[in-house]
Amino acid sequence: MRLEGPSEAAGCAIFGKCEFANPGGSVKDRAALGIIRDAEARGELQLGGTVVEGTAGNTGIGIALVANARGYKTVIVMPDNQSREKMDTLRALGAELVLVSPTKFADPNHFVHTSRRIAEETEGAIWANQFDNTANRKAHLETTAPEIFDQMDGKIDGFTCAAGTGGTIAGVGMGLKGLDENVTIALTDPHGAALFSYYENGELQAEGNSVAEGIGQGRITANLEGAPIDTQFRISDQEGMEWVARLLREEGLCLGLSSGINIAGAVALGRKLGPQARVATILCDTGFRYLSTLYNPEWLREKDLPVFDWLG
Predict the structure, then answer these.
(1) What is the model's pTM?
(2) Per the database record, which ranges form the Tryptophan synthase beta chain-like PALP domain (predicted)?
(3) Cα(25)–Cα(244) distance, rounded to whole angstroms?
(4) What CATH number does the domain located at 27-130 have?
(5) What is the CATH code of the structural domain delimited by 4-21+139-303?
(6) Among this protein's residues, is 138 annotated catalytic?
(7) 28, 86, 138, 177: which one is catalytic?
(8) Which mean pLDDT values do the consecutive 10-residue runs of the chain (312 residues) have?
């Protein structure tokens, strides 16, 4: 859909792909379905088996829904600093939820490593491994990219989004480049992640921090390898929150912070490409998943983030 406020700010046409409308409420449904279908095709996942994954929440929700529909159990490992709404949703969907303390990837107790160990120790289980399982980006290459291209009538000059696993930006980027090599692919990176500096100067170096869930990466995952990134932007939480507020107040879209950061990146890309440009980004998930955080004035003040005026 065309986003009026961002389009006006960028001086060109900005479009958002409404991934919050998926069954699990986020863009991660695509990775979940792609990974499970791939495991089935390779004979690794049998009826009655278990899918185990480490996730900030949305991939786990997608996996739980797909697994329920296809006859599998689900075990989800998640950092305990993610939103309560995600935890409650996973439990409501029937997933077994394992919470761990947030820590650096190098720590063996990181949620990704913990999920791998649980999968190895569980009979009939597979580890979804969304970060390094390229079935993730393949799902976006085969579905998200051609949908965006078709829905924009083949008239697209730029695409941008943030990276968590890297599956969305790599898969969509590869898919769009295959349809039109002139499409500019831009990374929109939150503070606290290291990919901006990697694509800027070849070094993985983080700066600042972000409270955005599900985005931000400190390494080159298998999904990111070979991603066709042409340019990059670093976006603050404050700038992302401004767009979250504006899209809700002005256009009736209740979104999460990752969507706000993506929109800010799309505006930056649109300004760079010029007034005739048509730029697309991903509206990742619904703001209803963050009522206890992004839409909670006490939490916002605690994080030194602006409180929406209607909550003050």
Answers:
(1) 0.95
(2) 2-285
(3) 17
(4) 3.40.50.1100
(5) 3.40.50.1100
(6) no
(7) 28
(8) 98 98 97 98 96 93 97 96 92 97 92 96 96 98 98 98 98 98 98 97 95 95 98 98 97 98 98 98 96 96 94 86
